[in-house]
Amino acid sequence: MDAVSAYHLKPWLAQYGSAVPATLPAPEATSLAAMAGAATTRHAKRTAFTCVLPNGMYGNLSFAQVHAMSDQFAHYLRRVVGLQAGDRVALQMPNCLGYPVALLGVLKAGCVAVNTNPLYTAREMNHQFVDSGAKVVVIVDLFADKLEQALVGTAVKQVVLTKVTDFFPSLVGGIAHAVMKHWNRLVPGHSLQGVHTLPAALQQGTAAAGAVSGTGTGTGTYTETLTHDSLALLQYTGGTTGVAKGAELTHGNLLWNMAQMRAMAADRIVDGEEVVLTALPLYHIFAFTVNFLCMFDAGARNVLVPSPRPVQNLQRAIENYPITWITGVNTLYNALLNEEWFTAYPPRHLKAAGGGGAAMHHAVVERFEKVTGAPLAEGYGLTECAPVVCFQPLHGPRVKDSIGIPVPSTEVCLLDDAGNPVALGQPGELCVRGPQVMRGYWQRPEATAEVIRNGWLHTGDVAVMTADGTFRIVDRKKDMVLVSGFNVYPNEIEDALAHHDAVMEAAVIGLPDSKTGEAVHAYVVLREELVGKVTEAELLAHCKTLLTGYKVPVRVNFRIELPKTPVGKILRKDLRSEALKKS
Amino acid sequence: MLSETETRLLGVMMMVIMLGMGASLTFKDFAIALRKPVGVLVGLMCQYGLMPLVAFLLAKALALPPAYAVGLILMGCMPGGTTSNIFAYFSKSQLSLSILMTMSSTLLAILMVPLTLAFYSSGIEGQWQVPRANVIQVLFVLLVPTVIGIALRKWNANVGAVIEMVGGLLGVLVILFLVLSWVPRNSQLLMTTGFPVYAASIGLGLTGFVLGYGLSRLLRQDARRSRTIALETGIQNGPLAVLIVLLTFSGTQQQEVLLIPVLYSLFIVLTSSAVTVWFRRITLREELARDAAKIGALNAA
Questions:
Q1: Cβ contact A555–B301 (<8 Å)
Q2: A121, B34, B49, B178 - which has most CB atoms within 10 Å?
Q3: What tens digit of pLDDT does each residue of B211-236 get?
Q4: Separation of alpha carbons B1 and B256, rounded Å
Q5: Assigned domain for B299 exists
Q6: Other CB atoms closer than 10 Å to residue A386's CB: what's the count?
Q7: Cα–Cα distance between B60 and B56 in angstroms, integer?
Q8: Closest CA to A161 of A199, A130, A129
Q9: How close is the nearest chain B Cα to the Cα of A524, in Å?
């Protein structure tokens, strides 16, 4: 790469002002386990986690409780199951109180966590267990029926079963679980042998710790060899393109990214004062680093919602707790803004909201800020960067429709196909260098070499930078539509469609076309009350007022819903393969 | 006849039911509903406008003797029953509207029940009349647990949710209790009871369903809301009427007045179940049709 380009000068540093330091000191904690210990010392008696069910029933765990229970789980893993440092433990559960206990337990045991989506099919689970070499699986009972099949040919030697209502007050948890099991029939049977429940595992851990040391229940010996370079988490990604790969995130990667995020939030995260709504699943890297790790370190109360769909499931959580932070994706905010209980009584204590995962729509951001009076800052990240790379600064003016500026101690550069920096204002592939960038893909040197070249992580996203160092994502490189030789970026078309009042959601893809090579096709979900009242012609006319001719879709297809990932990212590739199958 | 202990037990159970109903809603739910009050207003109109009138006209048409007439009119003047919420849930109606209607008609009962009852039973011989003080006293006593329920929900969501469930369950149990303890002991009476009493007991609920639906449609509520209001209108708070009778009358007089409220409570479970199955089918069919329309739009595009 050429020596000096606009990107090397880091023009975004000027936007940091006095609120954000340009570079951060290396995190003090030697590992996430040490970080959790320190946070517990500071906040022991505070409530760390509150899990809220749709009807308002809840369970709480304080920092001290999470600390003690995760110690017990660490002992269980090391002394009862017999794991060694560096062994992998798969965690497969929705947001619930068992998650922080299990996750911190794994890290305190010096082991490596493997976040696993509970909605995976048995085949996908099997791939992830085999690939990661997981020896223990901690899974929620709602999905245990798939496990038997998923365990074939894996190294898993122990299964630990959790319930969404684990650690709830016993009467409340009992009723809620009975309703789930006997009324909603959500808990399937299973024929797994030798399974331990999470509470039973904790008891065994306590017993084993006492038997060996006889004195304390400390887990320090398990973690004393950990450094910033030790592996903490295998976070699988790339499920959207072929086979899923495990991004190796180290304790250092995650500690750095926590600090970077905290720096960007500046004074909007105050130690011991925040209440964060976690509607995104913790097995997703954004919620994992920002909602869980960063907020745990800040002594925040974390309000966990097991399932944000339907969005009414969030009503009691938002009503009953003084939420100061929300993180989410465009679809979540959009859904909230369509609820009267939210718009009539928005959270009064909200300091800020963060959006990411997929492009936020301008119209959604504007409405959210108007309704709540709090800024909704958009960020950009990817699993390989633990995940945050850029965020809109919360302390100063934010450029709408941008992903903001790089977080401290991070270099960002836009490169062309030949690997040279593109001129200012020109689109190029966004590349990252910084302490949050992963070590590589687990046991896949070729795949690693493909994305990390000359020390830069190539994200596959096309972006442009303005003179003041603000970045804007144009689109995924591979989602770009080539219409008669012109580049069309689906995001721009989707945003134009979303500006129409009748449109609730839109997705745009390119399909082969005999005349133009590729043509733009739109898929639109209308607001319920307007279904059947808005025509394709109307939407096309609307697009024509906002877009140049070649960008206007040739077709608008009306849908009841769009295919989405569990976090709510719209799956354009599913629409595309479906359309290609039809033709 | 119910024994003294049974009457007391019924009173306690009613309090728990009301506690549970109170715990099913938050102040914010109310406030949100009041932003678009039309649905609730239509519901209240059906509850206190329609039902007492239906009861009165049925009593006239069937030429019921005063004891039965007073039982029927009392039944017609009652607020919505908490079991309606369970039926609303199963029939895929609008649960929030149903809960809200039950709650608002219960809160307004202390005002509306004495008024409507006095108005429609004014032509009945004095000894059969239900004294206003009795009605107000019972309603007031029940208002207290309702308000406590709301407060408990606000104070602690776990306590609120548990009470809500216990109350809902008890609502069904109380009707079973009434039926099981009363019917066998009065089989002789049931055998000799004539057609008009049965017609009145069954007819009150059925007419309520039909007219509640009709009036809601007339007042421009959509089909699903109208079905919710219909169920809510037809289903009255039977156990409450029973309790008022027990506390007002005694001996054979009590037994006679009690007949229609108890028969109503028994039959309303049956008729509501049938209506629920039917409504559920309609709702499912409508949902399918709506989906089909969307797919139609998709194909046309």
A1: yes
A2: B178
A3: 999 999 998 888 888 999 999 999 99
A4: 9
A5: no
A6: 33
A7: 6
A8: A199
A9: 10
Tell me if B161 and A531 make a contact (CB, 8 A cut-off).
Answer: no
Mean pLDDT, residues B18-41: 83
pLDDT band at B296 (very low <50, low <70, confident <90, very high): very low
The full set of domains in chain A, from first to last, is: 1-27+261-476 (3.40.50.12780), 28-46+58-227 (3.40.50.980), 480-582 (3.30.300.30)
How many separate domains does chain B show? Answer: 1
Please report, rounded to a whole number, the percentage of residues in chain A having pLDDT higher than 90.
Answer: 69
What's the mean per-residue pLDDT of chain B? 87
- Cα R_g (chain B), whole angstroms: 19
Spell out which residues of chain A touch residue B225, defining contact as CB-CB under 8 Å: none
Token pair for A181: 């099991």
- Token pair 């207290």 is found at B144
Tell me whether residue B123 is in a domain.
yes
Please indicate if any CB of chain A lies within 8 Å of the CB of B297.
yes
Nearest to A557 among B26, B291, B301 (CB): B301
- Tell me if B301 is assigned to some domain: no
What CATH number is associated with residue B72? 1.20.1530.20
Please give the average per-residue pLDDT across B201-211, as a whole number: 95
What is the nearest CA distance from B254 to chain A, expressed in angstroms?
A: 40
Q: What is the pTM of this model?
A: 0.84
| Confidence bin at A195 (pLDDT 50/70/90) | very high
Percent residues over pLDDT 90 in chain B: 38
If interface means Cβ-Cβ distance under 8 Å, which residues of chain A face chain B?
52, 55-58, 169, 171-172, 175, 179, 316, 319-320, 340-341, 344-345, 531-532, 536, 555-560
